[in-house]
Fold:
Amino acid sequence: MEYQPLTTETILDYLKTRPALAQILPPGEDYEIKEVGDGNLNLVFFIQSKSNPQHTLVVKQALPYLRVVGEDWPLTRDRVIYETEALMLHNKYAPGLAPQVYDHDYEMSTLMMENLNRHEIMRKPLVARVKFPRFAEDISTFLANTLFYTSDLYLKGEEKKALQERFMNPHLRKLQEDFVYTNPFMESPENNWNPLVDDLVQEVRSDGDLKERVAWLKEGYMNHAQSLIHADLHTGSIMLNQEETRVIDPEFAFVGPAGYDVAAVLQNLMLNYASHYAHTPDAAQRADYQGWLLDTIKEIWQKFAQKFEALWLKDGKGDLMPAAYWDYRGGEEAFAEFRRQYLAAIFRDVVGIAGTKALRRMMGIVSVWDISSIEDPEKRAVAERYAINVGRRWIKEMDEVKTIDQFTDVMREEAEKVRV
Structure:
């Protein structure tokens, strides 16, 4: 079928042509169709039977342009291929932590998958101070499994290089290179920021030490082919409830620095922490929830590091270094030290990348709903100032911040300066 954007009027006829969906959407039933147009890149449809709610799925279709900007910003539709292939690997290596893929049609740039209608996007309940007791456990498992099993620690050299070829994803990588690492730190027409924090924005853009570090972080993003990364793992790409977590939307996936995904999760929790200076005026309620966020950040890194190393010890059969390499007197200690340094290097990336991504949200093309939903610009500026101050410290102190306690100490220290 020749590519054409689907609509609520045409989508059912299209789905009827897909044999793989016959059991999921049986013919003869009346279906409710909703298009959720709140994304930046795609059309997303929810389809559910009115009489049998278990007959349901989600259809995602890539548009040939950046939706948040319009048709003047063209994009390749190949991103649906990367998303589909990444979801299949996520289901393989982290089963139960990503939506199931039912069908895909690369000619129409569509992906048909599980409807997570028992879950909700994480961002808004975080603003409402909902606590998710399983989140740190689930997301650390997802991160450890997907990053380890797509690395040279597990894969043979030929497999790893084939994975790199399979996930080149040059167009969306270019978007991140521009919109995360470059444009927010210079004058660029799409940048957007609160005029009440203009002094901090200009300080960041003229800070040579910070910008040099961001340039090296960008170099790592472009060239450090460590693991298959989701590359857009913010709290808007996580759906969950009190018992389950699902990671969605890996259309930016490529083989890059492993710390990128970990950093994305942690800095999103920091931005949510910042948002409560406006969203939660009661000081006791705010302190309680911000405390939970700090504990969650710490738990995610600690569990990720433990699980990643445990997988390495159990399944470390890749070509980076074979077991025989460490088979000598003193080799066990040397191997343990190599593992320590490997994780320390990931953590250094986490610190700098978290700062970079936090700053880009405060002074680039797209903020986060946690903060953009604060209507009063003065109250929003309090949150933004906090986020900018934490973000730039993470970047400038990325060589000194060596533990997760030091990482969260930066947040605590900057919190002591906030007056609300």
Summary: The radius of gyration is 22 Å. The chain has a mean pLDDT of 95.
